[in-house]
Design a protein that fits this description.
Elements: H1 3-32, E1 36-37, H2 40-50, H3 66-78, H4 84-110, H5 118-148, E2 149-150, H6 152-169, H7 182-205, H8 207-226, H9 232-253, H10 257-276, H11 282-290, H12 298-302, H13 314-321, H14 332-349, H15 351-374, H16 380-400, H17 405-427, H18 436-459, H19 462-490, E3 496-499, H20 520-523, E4 527-529, H21 538-547, E5 553-558, H22 565-572, E6 576-584, E7 587-594
Parallel strand pairs: 1-2, 3-4, 3-5
Antiparallel strand pairs: 5-7, 6-7
Helix pairs in contact: 1-4, 1-7, 4-5, 4-6, 5-18, 6-7, 6-8, 6-17, 7-8, 8-16, 10-13, 14-15, 14-16, 15-17, 15-18, 16-17
Length: 595
């Protein structure tokens, strides 16, 4: 049996082992918990994909790329009963874990090629067990909380981080990197392909996360090139062409006039509601009046119920966003000082984020020590650049004025994957497994990292916070389902139940089931939420057509939340009569008849 055949046989074996370990890790999770969406954004994307929002599956999901959305919407057309979107997100987590584990096993196996004695086999098995345990601990301490409360931005970060790991470790598993062998080249090609597919998937899921990844990808390519893996340039050019083709498809689809207008509207909406904000002060109201916002219209815009206001357009939003407030009044020097202070405050004082930051900094410290121990100073280049990039991006996001937790966590997850990849490269750097002293030293460093990881997370009670958050989300979903059940059974068919954006803003649903009642948009045809990022899109226009001009109007809100019934009636001209109340732990839902 030649070297390439032995390599292929070994790769099949380690693939089976990696599948078994992956199943051992994930099956208990599915048994113990339901996987639920963390935010209503995921639910809206799912509703668009499966056709619940407009009546037919669509690939125009706005925040996901068209090629991936097309595949998912097509699957919904073929087998609509399968929760494809939730299953896809779970699959990304599972695939990331499996591919990383298989890559580690593959590199380990390559170091024992030709060594068939019992001592070598024992060492190999021991290392497989150790690496499996380390990966499992890493998953449960870092990614598990974000797996059971799943969100597509985090999914993109995990997928892209796995792609970075696979990229940095590609070409590490051959003793003869320059050997010209067709079978060996096949496996080299697969290594690069694994990385490329995961990185492109990251872009397809959430392009903004991919843009955060780009500097790290460039650093990785430079590191691979200077460390002797010259074929990384050919790989980069090939897959850049694939990326450009997919991006072209996405761009062409959104060049249609209705979608081009919506993108302009949505960009202005984002500028106002995500960054500038609508301010509730006398000075702000005076400014908004000058832009054309009446006192009757103001509460509607303040409470984000923009679908009610036909006069609200991109020009109005940009005029309102120009109101000089907050950071807009500060000089660049003041903003820089504030950004530095916020970075320091978040890392030192901000609860869970402190744990993420300490873990990241500890990882970079340990990898630096490992580099010095092994005297592989070329690794200092990606290590230093990655650390600088991480906090540089962190500062830029803070400077822009909006840095939601999901983006912060995504950035940390990317950092963890880079550290893990650099550890793996250091651990397997060299041609054989003979240097046991160095190997043991690196393993000790990995063990210290994992112990510290567990201690940090235990100290910050992340799992306790997860349980509380998870239970609260289940409770909110259950309470909102009471409203959905009422609307589905007791409301006149064909009526249009206008719903304030904040009525069920925290409600999501189970990622792996799509049965009624789960959400108004998906399961209650009469329910129409009058705000959110889908406002102004062709999807909303199509949904409005479902009701017609003569549909009976109703109003649903959560008491003392969002747009009040009085403000709603004053703006719409409808006379509201309360017909029912639903008391829940999430609040009191009030249903009004409008005429």
């Amino acid at each position: 049996m030649d070297e390439a055949d032995r390599r292929i046989k070994s790769d099949k074996l380690i693939t089976v082992i990696a599948i078994a370990v992956t199943a051992f890790v994930f099956i208990p999770v599915f048994i113990k918990r339901d996987i639920i969406f963390a935010l209503n954004d995921d639910v809206m994307i799912r509703d668009i994909l499966n056709g619940s929002y407009t009546g037919e599956p669509s690939c125009m999901t706005v925040y996901m790329r068209v090629p991936l959305s097309f595949v998912l919407s097509l699957l919904y057309r073929i087998i609509p009963s399968v929760p494809w979107f939730g299953a896809f997100q779970c699959g990304c987590f599972i695939a990331s874990f499996f591919l990383i584990l298989r890559r580690i096993f593959s590199i380990t196996a390559s170091r024992y090629n030709g060594e068939d004695d019992s001592k070598s086999r024992t060492r190999f098995i021991l290392r497989i067990v150790v690496y499996s345990v380390l990966c499992a601990v890493f998953f449960f301490c870092i990614f598990y909380p974000r797996f059971v409360l799943i969100h597509y931005t985090i999914t993109a970060a995990v997928t892209g981080g796995a792609g970075l790991f696979l990229l940095l470790t590609a070409g590490n598993n051959s003793e003869k990197k320059s050997e010209k062998n067709s079978k060996g080249d096949k496996w080299h090609l697969l290594e690069w392909t694994d990385a490329a597919v995961m990185l492109i998937l990251c872009d397809q899921i959430r392009s903004q996360v991919f843009f955060m990844l780009l500097p790290f990808i460039l650093v990785s390519i430079i590191f691979l090139f200077i460390s002797g893996r010259k074929n990384v340039i050919r790989w980069s050019v090939t897959w850049a062409a694939v990326y450009a083709a997919l991006l072209g498809i996405h761009t062409i689809c959104y060049m249609q006039a209705p979608w081009r207008e919506y993108k302009n509207f949505n960009d202005a909406r984002t500028e106002l509601y995500d960054f500038a904000l609508v301010w509730d002060t006398d000075d702000a109201r005076s400014y908004y009046r000058q832009t054309g916002v009446s006192d009757v219209e103001y509460p509607v815009l303040l409470n984000y119920d923009i679908a009610l206001d036909e006069a609200a357009d991109a020009e109005l939003f940009r005029s309102m966003a120009a109101y000089p407030s907050g950071s807009a009044l500060k000089t660049s020097s003041e903003k820089f000082k504030d950004t530095v202070w916020m970075i320091k405050h978040n890392i030192i004082s901000k609860g869970t984020e402190r744990s993420y930051a300490l873990l990241l900094l500890s990882g970079y410290l340990l990898i630096s020590v490992a580099i010095i121990i092994k005297k592989k100073y070329v690794f200092l280049v990606p290590t230093a650049l990655s650390l600088i990039l991480h906090f540089g991006l962190y500062g830029v996001l803070l400077w822009r004025g909006r840095f939601p937790e999901r983006v912060m966590i995504s950035l940390y997850f990317i950092g963890y994957m880079i550290i893990a990849a650099l550890f793996a490269c250091l651990l397997f750097y060299g041609k054989t497994a003979a240097d046991e002293k160095i190997w043991c030293g690196i393993i000790i460093l990995c063990a210290i990292t994992c112990v510290e990881l567990i201690c940090i997370y235990k100290t910050s009670d992340v799992l306790r916070v997860l349980n509380r958050t998870y239970d609260r989300q289940l409770s909110v979903n259950s309470d909102c389902n009471m409203l959905y059940l009422y609307l589905a059974s007791d409301v006149e068919k064909g009526a249009c139940c206008l719903t304030d954006i904040y009525t069920c803003v925290d409600a999501t649903g189970n990622a792996l089931t799509e049965n009624c009642p789960e959400r108004g948009g998906a399961c209650i045809p009469e329910m129409f939420t009058v705000g959110g990022w889908v406002t102004g899109s062709p999807h909303m226009a199509k949904r409005l057509d479902h009701f017609g001009q003569d549909a009976k109007k109703m109003y649903v809100c959560r008491e003392n939340t969002g747009l009040s019934p009085e403000e709603f009636a004053r703006f719409t001209g409808l006379y509201l009569t309360e017909i029912n109340r639903i008391e829940t732990g999430y609040g009191t839902f009030v249903i009004y008849d409008g005429n």
